[in-house]
Design goal:
heterodimer; A: 436 residues; alpha/beta; D-Maltodextrin-Binding Protein, domain 2; 2 domains; eight-stranded mixed sheet; two-stranded antiparallel ribbon; 21 helices; 12 strands; 47% helix; globular; B: 305 residues; mainly alpha; MetI-like fold; 1% strand
Chain lengths: 436, 305
Amino acid sequence: MSNLSRRDFLKGLAASGAALGAQAAGGLLPFMPTAAAQDVAQVTYATPGGVVEDAAWEPVWEAFNEENDDIQANYLAVGGGYGPQYLQLLQARLAAGTGPDVFFVMDGFMVGFAARGVLVPIDSFIEASPDVDLEDNYAGHIEAHRWQDQLWGLPRDGAPYATWFNADIYDEAGIDYPQALSWEEFVAQAVELTERDERGRATVIGAGRGAWIDWIWQAGGDVLNEEGTECLMGEPEAIDGLRFAQSLVVEHQCSPSASDLADQNEGALFTSGRMASFTVARGFLGAVCNADFRFDAALPPAGKVRVGRTNVGPTVMSAETPDKSAAWELLKFINSSRGQTLKISTGYAYPSRRSVVQEDWYVNFTCGQAIGTGLNTVFNDIMENNWARTWPKHPQWPEVSTVINSELDALYSGDKSAEDVGTDIAAQVNAILSAE
Amino acid sequence: MQIHNVFQPKRLSFWESLNAWIFVAPWILGFLLFTGGPILASLVISFTHWDIVNPPQWAGLVNYETMFSDPLFFQSLKVTTIYALLAVPLQIVVGLFIAMLLNTKIRLIGIYRTFFYLPAVLPIVSVAVMWRWILSRDWGLINWFLSLFGVYGPGWLSEPEWALPALILMSLWGVGSGMLIYLAGLQGIPTDLYEAAEVDGAGRWASFVHITLPMISPVILFQLVVGLIAAFQVFAQPFIMTQGGPQNSTLFYLLHLFRNAFEFFRMGYASALSWVLFMYIAVLTLLIFRFSAAWVFYEGEIRNE
């Protein structure tokens, strides 16, 4: 084997460098827009994505691109799931200057983006667009996008919460299906349905814990005052809600304990037939359709006030988008009846538009072993009667919710009383609010 | 015959130097761009308020002062320190014990060594998910085993007093990598030392204490320092298994840092947290080195009595 001389080595290095450079330049060329392509505005929409979601969006882009010769909608599945990781990935793209033009953001986090100047308020675009029918959207879903008297996005869908129940478990126990129960009735049913073995392991759990915020709202309390300057979790009404939430797990043991949830979350407990009822959004239908038991959805329990939570899917516009009118066209289409109909063609998610909910295919939608029409009517009843509220809107909400979740651990384990949890949350959250 | 002085460094020619620099350039560039640069940047950022999207604003020492009023800073430091103090010695003891068992001449010893090392190469995410099941209160392997003796095991990951011990227990899963290094150390001990000890009437325990431990003490020091640094960088296990709960009982330092950086978008504060962690680890490492002279023995070392 011959030795490589220094001169040959350096020559080789230079040749390799030149080859790499040429390769890189050649590789980039296909992405450089041609004169014709430059006439078409490119608009990118970002969402967490996934196999099912990617397929659900496909007809939306096809229709939009067909109807808009001068705009090309591009789909960007960012990944990270519907949790903080998606926001981190999105944030990294925005910081790097490669952010999408239009994107989805979880409703509890939208205000944080708006406060930091990431979003464009869309009021002026709506005023200039007579074809936008805001009235067709449920009022609660639109209001979720309003902050400091400005509208920061439009819903792509909504997600009011109702109670899903396993009819087989109820029939076996000879108990009437749950429908708009009072707190007392709810507890009585859940206790009767719960079965545990001699070691306390749940074979059947009567009911899910329910969203903690629902119990607080239903007791007449709230998390923050209207101005977002003070935490109200130490007020008697909020403590009543916390006390009820705690009683389900600690006193009555009819809702899952932390140990029950360490193995399976509430959704998995329900779909595996180990939990009799569970309050969650309509989108859960996608999971429950495959369950091997009969099911339906019903109005959730109510305390002093009939109210529950609704999520919403804000679609917002980036402040950095170069072509705002093109981005607005896409945002408008995603919110439109046509856009939502195409997106929700699987029948699982819940539209934010009444007109879509009233379409025959949606009203008559059924799947799996559904026993009734509750899954198509109860969510509409909740929205039409204003029985749903969205998450509190505050720029520091992610931090506030972290504090609350940590304290809820102590509530559900029984390590702290509801009074202590409420006052401790209030103290910590007020410290966050005053620091900002 | 011309004799070269091997201890005198030979002066490199220009071309030799250039070649050398070309070969080390990728590492140097990689370090400067992807490690050194971000390290320096994080120091500057730690003196600012920065939400990633908007330009940073100078904040002076505010981020460092904030730590003193942040109860979660102290909680995360406490959790991580307890973990490091318990998990690292445990890993050293168990790793050394397994290495000694595997430092024997028996059939299929290579297969046994592979089995013990295998867990160390599995992805941490898969391991964390598997351990969630092993630690399940109702259906987990550990509680099933305890139930054979009439003991109802706790909710390992759901009870605040058990969650951190569970993660410490789980840290033994990766003990195989340490075991491999101990094994190399054990095989480097000259056998004549043991033979001489045997002639002198030393038993197994005396040989272990007076020969094995001193001879592998540099390896133990290495494992202690590396283990300590790794313990302060634990993130994936609490992130996947407990999210810092219950009741912040597994709120590790890096998880707290991560939340501030990527959930609350307080990059300045997160950077300050990272520099405090760096200094904390540096002080602990220096202390270990300072006191290592008392118990670490190097072959060929001449000590002034």
